[in-house]
Predict the structure.
Amino acid sequence: IRADGSPRYAMVCTMSGAILNCFLDPLFIFGFDMGITGAALATIIGQILSALLALYYYVKRFQTARWERRYFRLSAACTKAIVSLGVAACFNQIAMCIVQIAMNNTLRYYGASSVYGSDIPLACVGVITKVNVIFIAIIVGIAQGCQPIIGYNYGAKNYRRVRETYKRA
């Protein structure tokens, strides 16, 4: 979506689910007394919202390419390029998933022996994680927004503008 010329809409897709989750977490956990089930449900609803907004863009607003059957056939060269570009991100996601599983199990184990129970520590980490996602999304948005300006001016050997853009970012 960002590459299609709609960076704002891409940000809305990402942020809407995270923000909705931040509001639904305490409502489901404490308001409806659903505990960890409520936190999971809030996350699912937030992710569905983000996915629906992205899907809407691809169906109704996509500008650069049209959906054609030939674009969905993979060649060996295309597959090799996709894998070579995506393998680092894949391993990063796997590592983060393992860390999340270990953290959740630790929080559940030690939280169960506390007076608050295991649901409260898990819910707190869920809210903190979502706030962190919002913070990271802002930082990534700034970085991606200034990349074309820096790249263009670096190529044009306008180093003063590169430094100026870097400082403003």
Residues 17 and 46 are 4 Å apart (CA to CA). DSSP finds five helices and no strands in the chain.
